Amino acid sequence: MTPLSAQKRAEARVGLMLAAPAILLLVLLVVLPVLATAGFSLTDYRLGTQAIGFAGFDNYAALWNDPRFWQSVANTATYTLIVVPGSVGLGLGAALLIESRGWLKPFYRVAYFLPVASTFIAMAIVWEFLMNPSVGLFNQILAALGLPSVNFLGNPQTALYSMAAIGIWELTGFNMVLFMAGLSAIPRDLYDASAVDGAESGWDRFRMVTWPMLGPTTFFVVIITMIRAVRVFEVAAVITQGRPEGATEVLLYSIYVQAFQYFNIGYAAALIVVFLAVTALIALAQARFGGQREANR
Amino acid sequence: MRRRSSSSLVSSIASHAVLMLGALVMLLPFLWMALTSLKPPQEIFRFGLHILPEQWGGAENYGRVFSDTPMLRFLVNGIVVCSAIVVLQVLIAVPAAYALARIPFRGRSLFFSLILISLLVPIQVPSLFLYLGFAHAGLLDTYASLVLPFIISAFAIFLLRQHFLHFPQEVIEAARLDNFGEFEIAWRIVLPSARPAIGAFAVFSMVAHWNDLYWPLVVVTDPAMATPPLGVVFFRNQESGSDFGALMAAATVISAPLILAFLLAQRTFVRGLTSIR
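Structure tokens for the assembled complex are given below, as produced in the milestone run.
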């Protein structure tokens, strides 16, 4: 039964063989493209030109001085700052309310989760129709109430907020399900103990037991939602094309336009590096503070 | 006692009212999409609030979707692309995850670090280089360009590694005592136990790729190669906002498969889509 070193070596060979296709593909489809993109960002490469020249940090300097880039960053940040609290708060609220209501629970769960399971771009086109300035349902309702019509996605004042409302609609049900899982993991007897400690109202129970016990879940949900919100793309790309006046220009859409419509490879690569840095920072925050939280327990 | 039960009745009614209102908002786009797809144009463009269709425009709207676009082709493309992606992802991830979890080999920890880093890299990051590669190879507008970037899933490998890692060692020891070979243990005992995890991942991946718009938008310009999301975008741009009935019918057709699957297998869906934790 004693393991021979020859046997160990044979085993290691099998291990490497099993992992080899994945390693090869990972290098080819992820590692190499990421490194190459970082490399492109230091060149003046444009599709169609013959020579590629080294440009140092020129692309990054151009980004820094490009008001459109800053607008794109600001829009993405604003969108995220609306969608994260909105969909996390509503998701938590829905989970709490649904948990304590017995018989309609399955219906609510399906209704709130349906946006998550549906094809988002199709629903985005439906939202565009709902928000249509002349024949859309919302403006028909406003007209019936005697209110002036609103060009939700066409007015620079409202376009980004309308897009954020669609984002909240899209993500709330997902967060709700994560919170429901978190709620079901809270031991019942903690609530009994809190009653002994003088918790009387539902609010007391929430403040003393539910909220602290949900801490790790909430943190996780916030991070996940942030990562998804930063990747907002479809509505801007298909419905508004970043308009009006750049009000819905968001990071991924800027990347898409620079890379695949203008074929400004070097500039787009710099944008991609910035985008990767932003998403990596969010994920690192999770690893850093999420881990610390666990350790504190 | 009485005060308490009447106040709980009030709070129960209030909760249901709030939840119902929320459910209405969540379902509104679906209802409006389906209702509009059944209305003739004169009703859609008529001023004032009309909820239910008065005249039947469904046949015309859905008929236009299938006559003006290769809608069946979009759906077939979606099924081919998603199935190919999921099958290849699983075939490549299972052995790699098993090796990562149970077989020490040289470079294993480096490989695992790469997996963890790759989890942070969304498709938009390698997309530029991959696009140039596919363009150079003349593979734009092909199934290959739609499928290949996704066949390595760091997420699948990570998920399955966790599963294999937590497989009870006693079961393996017991199988060894019964003279099972290592290969038999892997194939007949450990692997079947991963079926639920693979199923959850398959649902997650199917939904993600059926819905993906970014990558098809990058590599496909030929309508014959469009996946359903790209197909509906082509149709929208071609209609340019004049025929909402047919546009809503198209949206209904491409979102129906996932919605039906979700309604039939809610538990599997919720588990699959939230398996990212």
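Chain A touches chain B through 89 residues (CB under 8 Å). Residues 128 and 138 of chain A are 11 Å apart (CA to CA). Further analysis is deferred to the final report.
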